[in-house]
Amino acid sequence: MDDKSTLLPIGRKGASKPIRNPKTKDSVLIVAAVFITILFVHTFVSISKRSPLFEERIQGISRSDPYKIFQDDPLLDRIGIPDLNPSKEHLHKGKKAMVASDVPLCSTMGKEILLKGGNAADAAVTVALCIGSINSHSSGIGGGGFIVSKNKEDYLSIDAREMAPHGAFKEMYGDNFVLSKVGGLAIAIPGELKGLFELFTRHGSKKLSWKQLLDPVIKLNREGFPCSKVFKRVIDIENEVVFSRVPEMKSNWDFIFNKHNEVINEGDWITRPNYADTLQLIANNGSAAIFYDPEGPIVKSLVDTIRQFGGIITKDDFSRYEVNVERPINVNISIGDRDLSVHSSNGVSCGLALVAGLNFFNEIHNKTEITTDEQQVLLTHKLIESFKWLSSIRSSFGDVQVENYKQGLIDKYTSKDWIHEILQNGNYSDKTTFPWKNYDPQYELTEPKGTSHFSIIDEDDNAIGMTTTVNLLFGSLVYDNNTGIILNNEMDDFSQPNVPNAFNLTPSIYNFIGPYKRPLSSTAPTIITDQKTGRPDLLIGAAGGSRIPTAILQAIIRVYYENKPLLESISFPRLHHQLIPEVAMVENITIFSEEHGNNGIIDKLHKLGHDWYESGSLTAMNGIHRNGDTLEGVSDYWRKRGEADGY
To answer: If one looks up domain 87-224+271-647 in CATH, what number appears?
Structure first.
């Protein structure tokens, strides 16, 4: 019943406005006060009931950048090491369609959906669920993601980002910040499955059913797959850092330990029958609804497990979840003789920051061919300055419920007026970089993430870019063994007062925790089309936390401004700058050495004010590029052992 109808006096039908009885008003205020008090007490009790033993065990646990575990480890066959001379065996070509993902089998499964008559959106459902099954440390239906989709002339951005529960508040972690990374309080309401169903409903081919798209993944989980070198390494790390210290968490996991309670080995066969059963329920349901049904078996099991590890998510929180569907961030840009249309993710993603960084670079880029060390120095300087402005712009974003706030940012940063203002005010120079305050970030001044991206183009030039994640490796490390679902720790992507997150990202004043808010994401899946033909020309996206938009921007610049092949653009060592810390990160500093034809470039950049840090692997990136009549697919074999597949 409408609340206002209870305020209409009896016998006053059709009154122009309700007449309020003062006693009724007082009663309403009393009821509201009681309700708010009960809600506060419920939330406080839920948080205070956390197991002291559990909290004591996780104190001091350090969970940080997932990509660090792959750096310089000889046991990993150089996983995570970029390649200056990539083998062409990792370049996959097709005339009609292409899928590029982190998992070779998942790329092939996506291709098989296309061969059965499905389109890019259909294949995306299967690929996403496949990756979440095999690389469950990176993604899955216990997490969320962003999708950019092109279907004929229709473009969509789907924000399936996780959402904070109703009981969440800005300082909910007190001074125990590890609770935003491990355990039930780290978990936000998952969005991936609802995002995939929205994509299927709006852009699917209608030739294949929802169940037909899930069936191959159900079979995969029942029949199993081998433990990869990457997966083995991830389990070893988390077992050493967390599971060995928190036995109550370890006891829930049923597929990463063998019958002797030891970590499985590379090559061991993994089956996930409980997860297969959950996917079967979802397939038979014909939609994502059963996953969010507060009275359904999945929600009940998830909420019980979340509560077991100190979480405050309720059944009603699941029922409140919705995806946000919008038009992608779009700018048209001319590069040489090419007129391109760039479409990147909307919502609480970094699509707008990426587009702004590209616009900035395009405006300051000189059109001279790079033939000398001096020109290479200037190009690198301009690239880093674009990164720094991109990072500054990113700090203005968040799930802010202020009228026209978001649209104002879009209007501002898809134009070039802000760039002209920077140039006029002397905030950019070819001759020097500046301290971080010059870039005016909206920080609170105190300070592989386990993510996956894939790209798909089908025979009709429909295209999908999706970045999906549970945040850190295995998310919150909370695993519900009834449903087989691994739950995210996306609450760590909110800003916390005085504390950088796991990626050392300084807190933004627009990204603090609040009920039903979505944390800002660094993801920026992007589709670039040729304006003359309307055909997708480049699909690109990455995993790697705060380094995602700079990695994507660097790939775009290498492909379009430096005319490098996609194979070299993805394998090549990447740069990154996020304002704080005030250093430029580079995966492999030898790219600037004399051995590779660069004479003293580092010294020359240092004279411009750039300090350097050799970081090791920063991101994993997958893409598809149209080269004439051929689609070229490249997955990041060097950092994540991915392979593309097409026909």
So the answer is: 3.60.20.40
